[in-house]
Here is the input.
Amino acid sequence: MLSERRLQVLRAIVQDYVGTEEPVGSKALTERHNLGVSPATVRNDMAALEDEGFIAQPHTSAGRIPTDKGYRLFVDKLAGVKPMSAPERRAIHHFLDGAVDLDDVVARTVRLLAQLTRQVAIVQYPSLTRSTVRHVELLSLAPARVMLVLITDTGRVEQRMVDCPAPFGEASLADLRARLNSRVAGRRFSDVPLLVEDLPEGFDVEDRGTVSTVLSTLLETLVEENEERLMIGGTANLTRFGHDFPLTIRPVLEALEEQVVLLKLLGEAGDSGMTVRIGHENAYEGLNSTSVVSVGYGSGGEAVAKLGVVGPTRMDYPGTMGAVRAVARYVGQILAES
Here is the structure.
């Protein structure tokens, strides 16, 4: 275990390196921070931190920089989540408040996160599997063609065309719409198959084929694999940190183009807690020089998706964690009120 003083030295090194982008020396530490000890003692502490792998000497200069292990300890023990200021909170509220639908919410969230953190922002659309049904609308387009519109509690809207095996009248369509919503509105998507399996039996024999076709389309919509959608923004922010990436940022950019990689980075959507993955903790090799800060968002206290940012390991962790958490909270409120 590190002594309290060495923890303070590590905190000071991380803060100075993040702020100045320059390796930190003992003289600078004693001048900038009230550590209460001599430069010689600080040098001894830095030597001990280096021996234990928390800091490293990138060049032959006297300065040191944090390692992934050092950042990890900083995040776990030394970094509080920086609260948003009142103007920042008002800006978040104002920026997100005007959203007109779910796509607009996600697009605004990506832009806002990228601006607040000056990193790459990633927002996952709410997952259907963790949503509930708000309403199912059925619209007649032709005697044997129906549009099915599924609306979720998170504001997501899915539309499907249904070609019916026989003409289906307006009265029958209205009857199906009413019976269907009485069973599924407000219920979890995972419950819907059992709730509707005997629904066709309540209709006339000549209508049961059409009812079954509509229900099949509804169930296919619930389980479609393409539901894991993402939006990404602020990639250009990486160019500000060119010297933070060994040789080139190309592997990072390539990784950010892979949706599967990004979904794994964000983690399981059902996990609403804050996750910080630093450097080599990211399984994808191209992202070993980055850190990922993510958190779940949703309505009613349950996460339906994740959002987060990707940036260099030399990151303002308290500020980034505070921004990500605050934005997630506001998006959850918007979904709850929508």
Q: What stands out?
A: Residues 106 and 123 are 7 Å apart (CA to CA).
